[in-house]
Specification:
Length: 280
């Protein structure tokens, strides 16, 4: 599976203009956005903005930290890191349309000095060793077959003692999955590990797992609420702008697999080894 195939799965023509048009149609001032104005469209992961807060709450974040958001989408989590935690964020994504939208929406939200975005591969990070105080990766690894290589890259760019937070959908049975799913139109772009396999991959990269938290029950409730609503107006802000016309099918299939016990969204935090003690 090539990275180009993954990028093409997510690319959306005229994404930025469509988002801005939807925001304007809903009454937002698109010349001066707030992070909350974007909440319904920029939290492209299980549980939406509420899950973003849960994920960031698992990390030891401090103002001024340099954070890598690997697979940043249109920048929602990066903006939360900057606005709510005072972090300096670098976001990367394979999809150019996502990066363009992330940059402009962040500028309109007044956070351009705290966040920068670039098209890059999480499996081949264009950064020096020990560049970041923390690395965050939300719903990205599920599209990457070389999980060990991915985690090794994250470990490489972490400073000593820095944290890596993964929020991924993990496999909890061997049953066939219903497609399409929010991260994969077909099985060709879906590469899931179990929670224990994920833990082992982190440990083999030299990281110490600090915590692991399942959001399965929370996710089922989230999708129940989403699916009970009427189908969204395509002209209004919503995750459908990123996931396409079959968004409700993706949500329904995901919810079915969660309830059957076949999938489990898990937040896992691991820490890089401490550095050598200073001489003296």
């Amino acid at each position: 599976m090539s990275e180009r195939a993954v990028a093409e799965q997510y690319e959306r023509a005229d994404l930025l203009s469509r988002i801005l048009a939807a925001l304007a149609a809903s009454g937002r001032d698109t010349t001066r956005l707030r992070t909350d104005d974007l909440a319904t469209v920029d939290a492209f992961h299980t549980g939406g903005r509420a899950a973003t807060a849960m994920v960031l709450g698992e990390m030891s974040l401090e103002a001024g930290m340099r954070v890598l958001d690997a697979g940043c989408g249109i920048g929602g989590t990066a903006r939360c890191l900057a606005a709510d935690h005072g972090c300096i964020v670098t976001g990367i994504d394979l999809a150019a349309s996502f990066v363009i939208a992330a940059s402009e929406l962040t500028r309109l939200a007044g956070l351009a000095e705290a966040c920068r975005f670039a098209v890059a591969s999480a499996g081949r990070l264009p950064f020096a060793d020990r560049s970041f105080d923390a690395v965050l990766c939300i719903h990205v690894a599920m599209n990457i077959p070389d999980r060990a290589g991915l985690v090794a890259e994250f470990a490489r760019v972490l400073r000593p003692g820095g944290e890596l937070c993964l929020f991924d959908v993990t496999r909890s049975s061997a049953q066939p999955l219903p497609f399409p799913l929010p991260w994969a139109e077909t099985a060709a772009t879906c590469f899931l590990l179990g929670a224990e396999e994920t833990r082992q991959t982190l440990e083999l990269a030299g990281l110490r797992v600090l915590s692991s938290r399942s959001l399965r029950d929370f996710a089922i409730g989230f999708f129940d609420r989403q699916l009970q609503r009427t189908a969204p107006d395509p002209s209004m802000p919503g995750i459908h702008l990123l996931t396409g016309a079959n968004t409700r099918d993706k949500m329904r299939n995901y919810r079915e697999a969660l309830a059957a016990g076949d999938l489990d969204p898990v937040i896992m935090v691991a820490q890089a080894p401490p550095g050598e003690p200073a001489e003296g």
